[in-house]
Write a structure and sequence with these properties.
The chain is built from ten helices and ten strands. By secondary structure, the protein is of the alpha/beta class. Helix 1 crosses helix 10. It is globular and about 60 Å long. The structure holds glutamic acid. InterPro entries: aa-tRNA-synth_I_CS (IPR001412), Glu/Gln-tRNA-synth (IPR000924), Glu/Gln-tRNA-synth_Ib_cat-dom (IPR020058), GluQ/Sye (IPR049940), Rossmann-like_a/b/a_fold (IPR014729).
């Protein structure tokens, strides 16, 4: 498929399951994949599979093969071809360049350690530094305005940097309020999006190109996804996706953020929680219907 985004009017409901091949699928992924498949089936829609492997240092072809085997075992049929994000960095870069041209994006040079040191120094004197919905400190806004000569000098001499969205300028460039529609297990109806809660999000890194936010938003539009069905852990990230959709003139899907499957200790399942990996459960003799029962479908 060529990387050209078409705006369509009425379109067939289109769903996607979009795992990252940086670990084994677990019960939480099974719920997501099964819900997507079920909703596609009952609406007469399509089901796409997208491998979100932009982090080429952590994603492997072994994990990719394991994902395909798990989905096959669960009886989930998706359309071909499968989209691999690592094959489309040029497409994401074009969108980034449009944002750079509009001066909505700036190169940022502080390392994680430098941000941490600045936050700690501030908090010793002046109280809590603002944090994003995942608990990470926001990038210092005073870094937005490097003098052009200094910025170019650092771009030429610094190996590691990231392009960040200037949240203030981005919000000034779109009509507000920004909203999305959600039909999931959390808040539903028309949701007020608050992308500013994330501060100046990273859209591109010199070492691991396009960010999740940029790639997911562009691909959902490119692939004509009309319904994004994914876990509630990504609920707040949707605010950033909606902002990028408006800035880049992309279509707006309906969102369905589903409940999470938690580990026995109440924590979120992670790719390293081996005992809930689908492959481990399969080896213990569980069947696909057992998995459906375990995830409550
Ligand atoms: N690739 C993301 C993950 O594995 C999911 C992205 C999405 O569904 O929007 O957590």
């Amino acid at each position: 498929m060529s990387d050209t985004i078409r705006q369509t009017g009425e379109s067939q409901p289109t769903f996607r399951f979009a795992p990252s091949p940086n670990g084994r699928l677990h019960l939480g992924h099974a719920l997501s994949a099964l819900l997507n498949a079920e909703m596609a089936r009952t609406s007469g829609g399509r089901l796409l599979l997208r491998l979100e492997d932009i982090d080429v240092t952590r994603c492997t072809t072994e994990f990719e093969a394991a994902i395909l085997a798990d989905l096959d075992w669960l009886g989930i049929r998706h359309e071909e071809p499968v989209r691999r994000q690592s094959e489309h960095f040029g497409f994401y870069r074009q969108a980034l360049d449009r944002l750079i041209e509009r001066e909505l994006v700036y190169p940022s040079f502080l390392t994680r350690g430098e941000v941490k040191a600045r936050v700690q120094a501030y908090e010793r004197e002046a109280g809590p530094w603002p944090r994003d919905p995942d608990g990470a400190p926001l990038y210092p806004t005073e870094e937005r305005h490097l003098e052009a000569g200094e910025r170019d000098r650092r771009l030429a001499t610094t190996e590691r940097f990231a392009y960040r969205l200037d949240m203030e300028k981005a919000l000034a460039a779109i009509p507000l309020p920004l909203t999305w529609r959600d039909t999931g297990d959390g808040a539903t109806g028309l949701i007020l999006a608050d992308p500013a809660a994330w501060g100046d999000v990273v859209l591109w890194r010199s070492d691991a190109p396009a960010s999740y936010h940029l790639a997911v938003t562009l691909d959902d539009a490119l692939q004509g996804v009309t319904h994004v069905v994914r876990g509630l852990d990504l609920f707040h990230a949707t605010a950033v996706h909606r902002l990028l959709q408006v800035l880049l003139d992309l279509s707006e899907p309906i969102y369905h953020h589903h409940r999470l499957i938690l580990a026995e200790d109440g924590r979120k399942l992670s790719k390293s929680s081996g005992d809930t990996a689908l492959s481990a459960l399969r080896e213990r003799g569980l069947t696909p219907s057992d998995i459906r029962r375990l995830v409550g479908i």
